[in-house]
Design goal:
Layout (H helix, E strand, L loop, with lengths): L1 H27 L3 H5 L6 H11 L9 H10 L4 H13 L2 H11 L1 H28 L23 H37 L12 H12 L9 H10 L4 H13 L2 H11 L1 H25 L3 H15 L4 H22 L6 H5 L13 E6 L4 H12 L4 E7 L4 E6 L3 H9 L4 E8 L7 E7 L4 H12 L4 E7 L4 E6 L3 H9 L4 E2 L13 E6 L4 H12 L4 E7 L4 E6 L3 H9 L4 E3 L11 E7 L4 H12 L4 E7 L4 E6 L3 H9 L4 E3 L1
Antiparallel strand pairs: 1-3, 1-4, 2-3, 5-7, 5-8, 6-7, 9-11, 9-12, 10-11, 13-15, 13-16, 14-15
Helix pairs in contact: 1-6, 1-8, 1-15, 3-5, 3-7, 4-5, 4-17, 5-7, 5-11, 5-13, 6-7, 7-13, 8-10, 8-15, 9-11, 9-13, 10-11, 11-13, 12-13
């Protein structure tokens, strides 16, 4: 324990200074600067990428989505590889920490090694790309994903952003790994005998290979690797082998290798690994055979002697502050939960939408706030996505809006993450929901079997079974007869008379006054669903209208809505008859993005109360009192053609 405390006392002042400089860079240098000079497959772009990457305080997990997003924005393969190699090896924080604990020689050597290996790897990738068929399809950019922060304009606002990034966000990102590194260093110091590494003292190459064997698959951040390297050197490991740990440990691990192979190909992965491994071995051999060992060992001994005299008051203050920051980071990351602003700010919080029904995507590979920010940017660039809320600790993203889930998954996996489809809960538009009454389900095992067989039917996007009601709510574009056949093939029976939504029932509209935010919308939908006979409800906040499906008494719905403080009135007739539906055949729609655009433009026509587009039949079902020619003009104004 004493060894760990001594290490922290020595590193704390420099760590705090390094974090501050990293925060200043983050707040004052826009992310677009890093994209502007990376486009051409030239040595110049590789050089820019390397020089800009070296001071960036990104760990090996945070650099992956950042680099992948740069690739999407048009950066050359060589620039991306050099960025991937140089960034995790160094940063302003790790350079200062290296100087404080390992002395000036190592502090100079680390960025030089990162520079040389990154330039070599990046240029090699460019040469191979120019002289071979190594040309991949770059995904189209959906947003400026590299610039993951909206930079404030005012100087003092930027200072606030810098401090938060330095002492909150970065602590959340690397705090755990820094603590792990310190603990490992302490365990090595206490439990590894001094004679263990002495047997390798005369064989520098063997020492290097042993360190590589453990460093490559491990996850280490540039700062967290320092105490481990110090502990190994004090036990007799060569300075060159310690340098290998400082280079290969942060720069490469299993996760980064898998992502690079999937996104950029096996040959690029080989260039990436070869540059880091080959460069670290060459630099390590140079350190061991060209420089005196004392040049690197003496600063460690001097630090050890200084520690015996006891840390200064300033060091203790820095250590205490660093400890508080680490505790705060752990609390924020693993214990704090987010609350909907409607719960704290009342119904007037118009921007809140966390209470609305949403899809939850389980994303694998997010390790830090940089990963989180890149994932948010990627998903926000998908057409129809209104809000993204990522829980980093749980590895989940909650999305709201009218979007294509496949486009979201493609955007996330396009920057190196993986979406777990089995664990994700994807909710599609309620307007495409159908209710099927199933007889014979008795337990959760029956429920699971029914859900599983329904999901095998082509076009089914989502299914949810209410065991108590004996009903299945199914969403998507599918053949209902195929669903019924599938359900009955495993021994259940479908009640066709009760399943009155085997064909879509057009909704009845209800105007609701007083809704201010999505929390209000969710409350209105919830209370309407309690009315007997209501099968489905979708509230459009912009038009203050609820579209309700089922066989129900509209007067009961109005009474329910007004019981929670809103005012409601059904349009026109007292009998609440269904508004006539008009069909419009639209040519040119190819995907859900086209469908969403068509629905959106039709809703802008005066008098349109509701619209639902069936992509399979290329037909729009429109309700309301409107001029059809205005609808046709609106649809054709965005590039589609209406078939009369």
């Amino acid at each position: 324990m004493a060894e760990i405390i001594n290490l922290v006392n020595s590193m704390a002042p420099f760590l705090l200074l390094g974090f501050l400089l990293a925060g200043i860079m983050h707040a004052f240098i826009p992310g677009s600067l890093y994209q502007r000079h990376f486009g051409q497959p030239t040595f110049k772009s590789v050089g820019y990428a390397t020089l800009l990457a070296i001071p960036l305080p990104l760990c090996s997990c945070g650099v992956i989505p950042t680099a992948m997003s740069l690739r999407r924005e048009g950066a050359s393969r060589g620039a991306v590889i050099s960025f991937l190699i140089a960034t995790p090896q160094t940063g302003v924080d790790s350079i200062l920490a290296t100087y404080s604990m390992m002395g000036l020689p190592f502090a100079i050597l680390r960025p030089i090694a990162a520079l040389v290996t990154a330039l070599f790897g990046g240029q090699l990738a460019n040469v191979i790309e120019r002289n071979s068929s190594l040309k991949d399809e770059r995904p189209k950019s959906v947003s400026n994903m590299s610039d993951t922060t909206d930079h404030p304009k005012g100087f003092f606002q930027k200072i606030g952003v810098a401090l938060r990034y330095a002492y909150v966000d970065m602590m959340e990102d690397i705090g755990k790994w820094l603590a792990v590194g310190l603990i490992i260093a302490g365990l090595i110091t206490v439990y590894v005998p001094d004679s263990f590494f002495q047997q390798f003292a005369g064989n520098s190459f063997l020492s290097i290979l042993i360190v590589l064997l453990f460093a490559i698959p491990m996850y280490l951040c540039a700062t967290g690797s320092i105490p481990i390297a110090i502990a190994l050197m004090l036990k007799g490991l060569t300075p060159g082998a310690a340098l290998v740990l400082l280079m290969a440990g942060p720069a490469v691990n299993v996760a980064s290798m898998l992502v690079i192979q999937r996104v950029m190909g096996t040959r690029t992965l080989m260039i990436y690994i070869g540059s880091i491994v080959g460069g670290s071995i060459l630099f390590a051999l140079g350190v061991d055979y060209l420089f005196p060992r004392e040049l690197f060992i003496n600063p460690l001994v001097e630090n050890s002697v200084c520690n015996h005299g006891g840390p200064s008051i300033f060091q203790w203050i820095c250590t205490g502050f660093l400890t508080l920051l680490l505790i705060n980071a752990m609390i924020r990351r693993f214990l704090m939960t987010k609350k909907c602003s409607c719960q704290t700010a009342g119904a007037g919080a118009a921007n809140c939408s966390l209470s609305a029904p949403a899809s939850v995507f389980v994303i694998e590979g997010m390790k830090c706030n940089h990963c989180k920010a890149n994932a948010e940017k990627a998903m926000q660039g998908v057409a129809g996505v209104k809000q993204v809320d990522i829980d980093l600790a749980a590895g989940t993203a909650t999305l709201q809006g009218n979007y294509d889930a496949e486009e979201v998954i493609a955007a996330v996996e396009g920057i190196g993450f993986k979406v777990n489809r089995e664990k994700s809960k994807i909710v599609v538009a309620a307007a495409d929901a159908y209710t099927l009454y199933i007889e014979g389900m008795k337990c959760n095992h029956c429920k699971a079997n029914a859900e599983k067989i329904i999901q095998t039917v082509t076009g089914v996007q989502h299914v949810e079974i209410d065991l108590a009601a004996g009903s299945a709510t199914i969403q998507g574009q599918f053949d209902m007869e195929e669903v019924i056949s599938a359900v009955e093939s495993i021994g259940f029976k479908v009640n066709r008379e009760k399943s009155d939504r085997c064909t879509a029932v057009q909704p009845r509209a209800l105007h609701i006054q007083g809704m201010k935010c999505n929390h209000c919308k969710a409350n209105a939908e919830k209370i309407i669903r309690t009315v007997p006979g209501v099968e489905n409800v979708e509230v459009d906040l912009a038009s203050a209208t609820a579209y309700i499906q089922g066989n129900f008494d509209m007067a009961e719905v109005i009474s329910a809505v007004e019981s929670i403080g809103f005012k409601a009135d059904a349009p026109s007739c007292a009998a609440c008859a269904v508004t006539p539906t008009h069909e419009l055949h639209i040519e040119g729609m190819k995907c859900n993005h086209c469908k969403a655009n068509a629905e959106k433009i039709i809703r802008t026509v005066p008098g349109v109360e509701n619209v639902e587009v069936d992509l399979a039949s290329a037909t729009a079902y429109i309700q309301g009192n409107f001029e059809m020619q205005e609808v046709i003009d609106a649809v054709e104004s965005i590039g589609f053609k209406v078939k009369q």
